[in-house]
Amino acid sequence: MSVFENHDPESLIDTLVDGRFRLRTEISRSGSSTVFVAEDQRDGSDVAVRLFSADVSGRRGEALLDQARAAAEMSHPNVVRTTGFGRTTVAGVSRVYVAQERLTGGTLQDMLDRGRLLTPSQALAVGVDVCRALDYAHKRGLTHFDLRPSAIVFGDDRRARVADLGVASVVSEDAWADTTTVSLERARYCAPEQATGEPFDEKADVYALALILSEAVSGSVPFLADSVVTTLGARVDKLFPVSADLGGLASVLEKAGRSDPLERSGASDMGRALVQAAPSLPRPAALPIVSASIFDGDRTGDIPRPIPSASTPSASIPAATGTMEIIDGEPNVIVEQPTADVPLIGRWIVAAVAVLAVVVGGFVLFKFIQKDSHEIPMLTGIDVGEATNLVTEFDWTIVEVEEASEDVPAGAVVRTDPEAGRSLQSGKTITFFVSTGPPPVPLPELNNLDVAAATTALTEAGLVLGAQTPEFSEDIATGLVIRWVVSLQPNLVAGQEVVKGTAVDVFVSQGPAPRVIPDLRGMTIENATIALNDLQLIINRADDEFSNEVPVGGVTTQLPAAGESLPKGSSVTVAISKGPDVVPMPNLATSTNLDAVKQTLTNAGLTVGTVTGRVRGAPIAATVGGQVVAPGQLLPRGSVVDIVYYG
Predict the structure, then answer these.
(1) List of residues 6+ apart from 161 with CB closer than 8 A
(2) Residue 295 pLDDT > 60
(3) pTM
(4) Are residues 139 and 92 part of one domain?
């Protein structure tokens, strides 16, 4: 079935998804989903709704919803907000959808498609924003695994956000399960470990970012070739190409682009390295963003795009100028807005204005010196957006710095600098310290602890005990923790950090699993012993016994019976066959009367059957089952012997 399940995407326009999101226009499509601009009926806002195909929704729907649920809990200024998700029926087909806020500054791909390359300073500023988003997500167990320029989105404030964190990783893991079917578009930004089919983790996102920043400056993707095979092969065990033209950005990209993930930077390491490199570069110009109203997102999906040339001219937007300064450890972009060329008549106007400026210079100087001052209000606990609105009228320059807080919810102001109650002149800078929520805490090692001790260790670390699942263990004593896991981040190990209050599930030992007793009947004592030893059970031998069914030396009976269960180390008792229990046929001719005959047979272990003929003297024949038996012939004990007298 096709990507769109035999539905033309245009036919879905005006469809109401999940009773909330009304689809308006298609903005992109790929092999797994279609993205629409939609109107959220709850508040009338525009959102981007990603509608997954029925195939992906069926196979990977639960994984997509789990990742979307985790993404919806994130709150970070550099992460595109997830506003809704679920499973719904669209045009008669069950589909999973994810809705995210729609920003109007376009994507990095929009800039590159128009030849709007970035300076190293601009690329550094974008890189810091993306690193902050990746570090925040990685610490919460969310990855991207398909980071491309189209996933880096800008708001009107020209700050970068990362879209599709978590959700993209599900589709990407599917795609990379078979490297022979990977598209060139996906291969453009893959890490070497993805290319070789080896397991990959969050370091793949860092490698992708290094490729993206290099492309944003140079206009070309490192190692990109005409085919998927050549592109993938070119990255394995290769040094990342950097140029001296990148300035301080070069060393950062070299480490972030190392082939071995163990030698590669993490998101936080790369972000810190970018900040440290910032003073060596000039202040960046304003980013040449492309309005989403002009170009609604990335329309390429998995469709190959032409490789842009590094010599492609930039768009005819007047360049802005500026420098970079570091404020509280974060690069702060300060730009001078671009101005168009001034025509001749404008020069006369400028001259006239200059004369007027001389006349009123004293007044202007007086007003400049006498800037208004305003008292800084108490903003602690207020959402940063609302706090910004509260002080907009004071004309302060606002700088946001992230800070962990136990008491203030994520996204709200923890404190300001200068502090509340102080006076600050218009035009001055005020710093908002914005909460990222409680600081992450390290996971303790819980293995081999009992449940009480594990609970104490988690409580002391600021975590909680989740589900307790009993599990058999050959090595761990009953009642001790065998293993533990954070359900949404199953690959975490002790020492790695998680959000405070995270639940940790434990698997508690029930001791060794019970042993199911095999059927030993007919086995020799040696084979029965081996079978029980393999199960770590003990064999006990009872007295041997006769058996008409089991040959000599075979197990005749066992206790407990086959199919029953015993704890490890328990005993099974067996009896060994002595073969059939037989007795010799006595000579009845020596008996003088019938009573003596009967007594002789009984004493021999046989049973008296029918008696025929005249009972006088000795019998003339004895039969068993109609067959004449002779004295000394072996018969099964208890056999019925019929007696025949003459006449």
Answers:
(1) 77, 78, 79, 80, 103, 129, 133, 152, 153, 154, 155
(2) no
(3) 0.50
(4) no
Q: CATH no. for residue 429?
A: 3.30.10.20
Count: domains in the chain: 6
Count CB atoms within 10 A of the CB of residue 552.
Answer: 12
Question: What's the confidence (pLDDT) of residue 351?
Answer: 42
Q: What does the alpha-carbon distance between residue 231 and residue 222 come to, in Å, rounded to a whole number?
A: 9
Sequence-distant (6+) residues with CB within 8 A of 594 are 611, 615, 643
Stretch among 174-188, 281-295, 469-483 having the lowest mean pLDDT:
281-295
Say which CATH number the domain at 623 has. 3.30.10
Residues 463 and 541 in one domain: no
What is the Cα 126 distance to its own chain's centre?
Answer: 26
As given in the structure block, the two tokens for residue 338 are: 């671009």
**Token pair listed for 271:** 């972000």
Mean pLDDT of the chain: 84
For 472, the domain range is 441-509
What CA–CA distance (Å, rounded) separates 198 from 560? 50
Rounded Cα distance between 51 and 28, Å, is 11
Q: 88 is written with which tokens?
A: 């719904």
When pLDDT is averaged across residues 32-51 and rounded to a whole number, the result is 94
CA angle 59, 48, 292 (to 5 degrees): 140
Domain stop point among 509, 528, 555: 509
Per residue, the 3-state secondary structure of 293-331, as one string, reads: CCCCCCCCCCCCCCCCCCCCCCCCCCCCEEEEEEECCEE
- pLDDT surpassing 60 at residue 359: no
Q: What single string gives the DSSP state of each residue in 595-634?
A: HHHHHHHHHTT-EEEEEES---SS-SEEEETTEE--TT-E
Which tens digits make up the pLDDT trace of 297-347? 443 344 334 333 333 333 222 333 333 333 334 444 333 333 333 344 444
Report which secondary-structure segment, H or E, holds 152.
strand 152-154
Task: With respect to residue 143, please indicate whether it lies within any of the assigned structural domains.
Answer: yes
The verdict on 262 and 410 lying in the same domain is no
CA distance 526 to 541: 11
**Residue 412 φ/ψ, nearest 5 degrees:** -100, 160
Query: Would the pLDDT of 84 be above 90?
Result: yes
- CA atoms in the 13 A half-sphere facing the CB of 397: 8
Domain end point (choices 435, 460, 485): 435
Residues 209 and 118 in one domain: yes
CA atoms within 13 A on the CB side of 333: 22
The structure tokens listed for 335 are 């730009």
